[in-house]
Amino acid sequence: MDSSRFKARYDRNFNTFSPGDQKKLGAATVAIIGLGGLGGGVCEMLARVGIGKLVLVDGDVFEAGNLNRQVLCEERLMGVPKAEAARDRVKAVNSEVEVIHRVEFLDENTLCDTIKGSDVVMDCLDSIDTRFSLQDAAKKAGVPIVSGAIAGVTGQVFAIFPEDRGYALIYGEKSRKQGKGVETKTGNIAYCALFTAALQASECVKIILNRGDILRNKLLIAELWTNVFEVVDLV
Prior knowledge:
Blueprint: H1 3-10, H2 19-26, E1 29-33, H3 37-49, E2 53-57, H4 82-93, E3 98-102, H5 111-115, E4 120-123, H6 128-141, E5 145-151, E6 154-160, H7 168-171, H8 183-186, H9 190-209, E7 218-223, E8 228-233
């Protein structure tokens, strides 16, 4: 991108980011695993902030029940793979971003290769056992994770580095075989999904730039009915 286009596109990122910061974001690769309520929001924000390469992974297709909260979902896209919609959205927003999209569900045998070379992997999944599988792959690949989860109007975010205990600090080791989270009982509301996705995107940028107070071994919990926001030390 020439200097004039670079300045014009990212003008409102300055002076929060320096030109050097912006170029560092442009050199980064981020893998987003799951492209629903959280992943769609994360995808949108990281494309706009200027991440240079996005690896987008989801095997699911859109259905009517996704319309209440998934920013990539449109009525005309029923039955369309989420990964394809995410690819198209990124290209419509920021054609400079390199996109690799994979229409596939999480596969423990190939996941490490999928995320290898990424600077950060975004956990936008909806089940506990697959989160543990992602953590195993990220540990092997040496890639930090930014994890988000929502239930009703409550969201949580934290960061896991390869040497951390990660999900075991929240769910316990015995949770590896659990399926869907509590959101199947509470529902998922659009503004909570996008709010939590924004917090995830922020953590991703902080890790890439090595700036700010990163939520490593800390769990941020936001409850939007009562406006209670809490950061819990996990170790």
